[in-house]
Write a structure and sequence with these properties.
The structure is a single chain. The two termini are about 45 Å apart. Helix 4 packs across helix 5, helix 6 packs across helix 7 and helix 8 packs antiparallel against helix 9. This protein has two domains: about 120 residues, Creatinase/prolidase N-terminal domain (Creatine Amidinohydrolase, Chain A, domain 1, 3-Layer(aba) Sandwich); about 220 residues, Creatinase/methionine aminopeptidase superfamily (Creatine Amidinohydrolase), CATH 3.90.230.10. By secondary structure, it is of the alpha+beta class. The protein has a six-stranded mixed beta sheet, sandwiched between helices. A three-stranded antiparallel beta sheet has the order 7-10-11.
Amino acid sequence: MPTVGIAQEYIASVMGRMNLDALLFWGLENIRYLCGFTGSDGALILTDRERIFLSDSRYEEQAKGEIQGAAFRKYKKKIEGVAQCLKSLKVRRLGFEAAALTCESYQRLKKELPRVILVPLTDQLTNLRSRKVSEEIDKIRGAIRIASDSFLDALPRLKPGAKEKAVGDFLEIRMKRRGGEGPGFSTIVASGPRGALPHGKATDKAVEKKELVVIDFGVRFQGYHSDETKTVILGKPDGRQKKIYDLVRRAQERAMKAIRPGVSVRRIDAAARGVISRGGYGEFFGHGTGHGIGLAVHEPPTISPRGSGVVEAGMIFSVEPGIYIPGWGGVRLEDLVLVTERGCEVLTYLSKELKDNIV
């Protein structure tokens, strides 16, 4: 796996700080990241000397062909099989993904391992996947290319009378035909007043002349995701539309200029939020400025007033300020950026200038 070096260093640090004999991974995204398995069920145990992936007979051949740097063990029942493996390794203090293990599974595992101290890990694993290596960046670039080309395929269908859902469905079909594994999330097409819904799922509403249309789309490619939002207008924009669009665009640019290694996520958020607040629309920007992306659509870092930590070179996250006015509509502009040693590189390349988004 291209991520092995970063992962081993990170995990060794966690195990040392928490005095752990082993780490148990239950979440499929971290399992894929750490050993390459792409199936839908399994568990991964890491010690300072052993890496063992466990699953049932459905995935035996797949796992043997996919996993790297780990041995395979088959179980008939997951909890019992994992517990037996941990007993054989003589584990006494076990760290586990608290966000991935259900309460029921935790209770059953605890019952099977009465002599093992189970240590829930939350913040300790937050940044495991946050810094991307070159192979991961290439896959995200590939996802962006597929999504961008597909958006351009769909754009001619966005005209007065077209239904939001028809446009969204066509875009998702094009993303699959261009090589995507599937949409990363349900495509958002929200026109007119519905643009005030940050997650306005596409409906049978017909788009109309002079309306702003918020389109949020992304694709999964070789396990990795893209995420981008364009706001277009059907016809010449009026004064208020121009003002709000320009305000969101300036907020996005200000946030991007603030990005460099060592800068806090809250400072980046404040850079965007300050522009919108000074413009008189602060109450209409209710979500964070961005989120990390990779094997999951939403992962650390979280760029928001409540986020924590600083950004580091190799992180990829969205910059997506927005203004949403009930009864009027909304504008959101979203691009993905890669943190570099001196600033950031904007990975998404479809124009966010207003003049290029009048259709």
